[in-house]
Structure formats: structure tokens, C-alpha cells
Specification:
heterodimer, A: alpha+beta, five-stranded antiparallel sheet, four-stranded antiparallel sheet, B: mainly alpha, 0% strand, globular
């Protein structure tokens, strides 16, 4: 056991340089949760490594600045994860699930209790939806991908494989004639499935649109469809965003 | 518009500003970004996007891909700002960890496709080159000086890992050295770098 710990401790340098394989990374991250000395050492090594990085600075093309900042401000933010402070992602997951279950149960109970009061049910639905969006944005495995839309604008997709969900944002989208709307699709090994109409609001901003039932290899596509929506895409996607690595 | 603001700034050497002087400001800025402060985010972009693009280019060796990574990392900085905890490390280290991880993940998934051998060969030849696009700065000089204070094996281990995106096992294979040795050289090298750079 002691020699195993020593071996793990020697990994601090490689870990801080991201020079470990995924399984070792997971094991060492777990080890960090219970080793204050290792956390301190990794912290210092990361500071040193960061300086190796900043020494390579190059000035980005100025024309990237505006679209990136606009996209960021249109993208939701993850909430703070208190349980993650000490490392172990499984611990944070365990702690979060009951909260979500309670929230879902409360929403269901409220909906049943209120019965036919339509507006309240709709409120509950949108509140649940907002919570679900927040869950995806805050998921420990969430990965963000960005892509330029062919007809103009930028799309941002945050995917959580664990939750089988994604959240779609866009800005700078070309406005469409009244008879047309943007529609989202899941496109992958399981074929093309409609993933909801995209509401464009606040000038040319769109989202968050929640996309559920995502499976491995699915890409998120956006097409221009008749305003009533289509069951299959009738035009080529203006943007296709692949999932990031977890 | 902000385009004009960029031009205002173009004269001063924002990208090459010494990191240690920018550090406290960045910590405060990131804390403000976590609360959704849009102006703070503008400043974070101006301060860090050049660092992020630089390391992405170094690791990926593909300017177009590096630009894509820079944009995604900057969006992640906005999304994940609430995860930044100044008690656990500097904002510089937090941003660079995000950037390096993303670049390394990408270069590894690329390498796992057909180009593995070719990339490996290239990396051995020029792992320690000075990137053509690096902006001359005191900081870059200082880092070079500290790197050259390492033994050549320590330097190769650290450079191949950080700039090349290789795992310690791959570095061991490239250098024909046992992987245990590579692990310890990486750690020893970082201890020297940490002390030489005066990491707080």
C-alpha cells in the first residue's frame, strides 16, 4: 500500500503536465481528494506549467474578439459545485442527485395538486426546463463546442454524455421570412431525429434550447424548415456540431 | 464598438505583459465573471486569449485548429468561471489548465488516428524550437532561461509532455527511457522550474 502511494505521489509532475492516460488521471484525481500535500504540489506545478504556456502567447486575430465575446455572453453559465471542492467527482454526483429528485418530485406534486390550472403547470414546466438546462451546463462531463453557421452567426453546443442531453445557443443567425423557422436535429448513427424548433429572440440571439435523448456519435444540426416544422430535414444543415471528447 | 477598443489597445503590449503582474487582476476579474459581469469578461478575453492561442498552436501545430480551440476555451472560461477558486490557484493557472487540457485531448484523439508516427517524428526534431510567432517578452526569456537550467533529460521530459502533448508513457517510448524515470524527471524538472520562476 505504502509503495503504491509513493508511486502515485511520483505522478504529480506528469499529472500537472496532463501527461497521464485517462484512467490514471481519474485515479490520481481521486488520490488528490485525500492528500493535501499532493494538492499543494500539483497546484505549484500547474502554476509553473502555466508559465511555460503563457511564454508562447500570440495575438489572436482581432476580428475573432467580437463574435467570441457575443457568443460567450449568450451562453449560460455553470453554477458553483460546492461538493467538488475536495476533488472526487463521484462524491459531487451523489450529493446532487437527491436535490434534483426532490425538485422533480416537487414539480410533479405541484402539477398534480394544482390540477387544471394551466398557467401554473406551464410555469412549473418552464422552471423544470430551466433547472434541466442548468444541470447540463453544470454537469462535470459537460463539453462545449462551437461552430460557425454557414448562413451567418455562431452556434454553441454544451453536451453532457452522462445526461444524454445538450443545450444549444446561437447568435448572429440570419433572420428568416415568416414562413420559415430554424429546426434542430440529432444526426448520427441512429439516423436523423427532430430535436425541436429553435426560437430566435432578442435580435439575433437564440437559445438555450434543450436537446434530449442524445446518444454517442450524435451531432447537433440546424436546418431551415417550414414554420410548422418537419419530421425529416428538408434542407442541408446550416451548421453541424459534433460532440466533444468527454 | 469593441472593434475600436481593440485598436486602442493594439499599441500596448497586452499579450506579452508579464504574467505575474497580471495575476491578481485576473483573479478578481474571473470572480466577477462568475457573477455574470460582462465587462470583466471583456477584460479576461483581452488578457488571456493570446496565452490560450499560443499554447494551442504550440501543442496542435495547426493554426486553424488552434484558433478553434482558443474560441472554445474562451467560451468555457465564461461558462465555468464559477469553478475558479482563488484559494486553490491563480487565474492564470486555471485558464491555462483549461486550454492545455483541451489542446492535449484534441492532439491525442488526432494522433490515435493514422498520423501517429509522423507526428512523433516531427516532435522529436523540433520539440524545443522557439515558435516563430512568440512575442518577444521578458517573461518568455525568463521561462527559456529557467528551462535551460534543467538537465537535458528533465527538459525533454517536460517539453515533450507540455508542448508536445505526450503522456509520460509515450515520452518514455520516444526517448527510450524507462517510464518510471520519465515520471520522476517530470517531477524534478517541475520542482526546478517552480523554484526558478518564483512560483508563489
Amino acid at each position: 500500500m505504502a509503495s503504491g502511494d509513493h508511486d502515485l505521489h511520483m505522478l504529480a509532475g506528469a499529472y500537472a503536465l496532463d501527461a497521464v492516460a485517462d484512467d490514471e488521471r481519474a485515479r490520481f484525481t481521486e488520490h488528490l481528494a485525500g492528500c493535501a500535500l499532493c494538492r499543494a504540489e500539483v497546484g505549484e506545478f500547474r502554476e509553473a506549467a502555466a508559465r511555460l504556456g503563457t511564454a508562447q502567447a500570440v495575438r489572436p486575430r482581432p476580428e475573432l474578439r467580437d463574435p467570441v465575446i457575443r457568443s460567450a455572453l449568450n451562453t449560460g453559465q455553470a453554477g458553483p459545485v460546492i461538493a467538488e471542492r475536495q476533488g472526487s467527482p463521484t462524491a459531487s454526483r451523489r450529493r446532487r442527485v437527491p436535490v434534483l429528485l426532490t425538485a422533480a418530485a416537487a414539480a410533479v406534486a405541484a402539477a398534480i395538486g394544482i390540477g387544471t390550472h394551466y398557467a401554473d403547470v406551464a410555469d412549473q414546466r418552464s422552471a423544470t426546463r430551466a433547472r434541466t438546462v442548468a444541470t447540463v451546463l453544470s454537469a462535470p462531463d459537460a463539453v462545449l463546442r462551437m461552430a460557425h453557421v454557414r448562413s451567418g452567426g455562431m452556434a454553441v453546443v454544451v453536451t453532457s454524455r452522462r445526461e444524454h442531453m445538450a443545450v444549444f445557443f446561437a447568435n448572429g443567425l440570419r433572420s428568416l421570412p415568416g414562413a420559415k423557422r430554424y429546426e434542430l436535429w440529432l444526426m448520427g448513427p441512429n439516423g436523423e431525429r427532430p430535436a425541436g424548433m429553435l426560437a430566435v429572440h432578442r435580435k439575433d440571439m437564440a437559445g438555450p434550447a434543450l436537446i434530449t435523448g442524445m446518444s454517442a456519435g450524435d451531432m447537433v444540426g440546424l436546418t431551415v424548415e417550414p414554420a410548422s416544422g418537419s419530421l425529416r430535414p428538408t434542407s442541408a444543415p446550416v451548421v453541424l456540431v459534433r460532440q466533444g471528447r468527454p | 464598438m469593441s472593434q475600436g477598443r481593440w485598436r486602442d489597445r493594439a499599441g500596448d503590449d497586452a499579450v506579452a505583459r508579464p504574467v505575474h503582474r497580471a495575476a491578481p487582476a485576473l483573479n478578481d476579474l474571473l470572480t466577477a465573471v462568475a457573477r455574470g459581469d460582462e465587462r470583466a469578461y471583456d477584460a479576461v478575453y483581452d488578457l488571456t486569449s493570446g496565452w490560450v492561442l499560443g499554447i494551442a498552436r504550440k501543442v496542435l501545430r495547426d493554426p486553424a485548429l488552434a484558433e478553434e480551440v482558443m474560441q472554445e476555451v474562451m467560451l468555457e472560461v465564461w461558462r465555468l468561471a464559477s469553478r475558479f477558486d482563488p484559494a486553490r490557484g491563480s487565474g492564470t493557472s486555471w485558464v491555462m489548465t483549461l486550454a492545455h487540457r483541451r489542446a492535449v485531448d484534441l492532439v491525442r484523439s488526432e494522433r490515435s488516428h493514422a498520423v501517429r508516427e509522423l507526428r512523433a517524428a516531427t516532435a522529436v526534431i523540433d520539440y524545443d524550437d522557439v515558435t516563430e510567432a512568440v512575442e518577444a517578452s521578458l517573461e518568455a526569456e525568463r521561462v527559456q532561461r529557467c528551462l535551460s537550467s534543467l538537465t537535458s533529460l528533465q527538459r525533454e521530459c517536460v517539453s515533450l509532455a507540455y508542448y508536445g502533448g505526450y503522456t509520460y508513457a509515450e515520452v518514455a517510448e520516444l526517448l527510450g527511457v524507462p517510464s518510471g524515470t520519465v515520471k520522476t524527471r517530470m517531477r524534478d524538472g517541475l520542482i526546478k522550474l517552480r523554484d526558478c520562476l518564483g512560483v508563489p
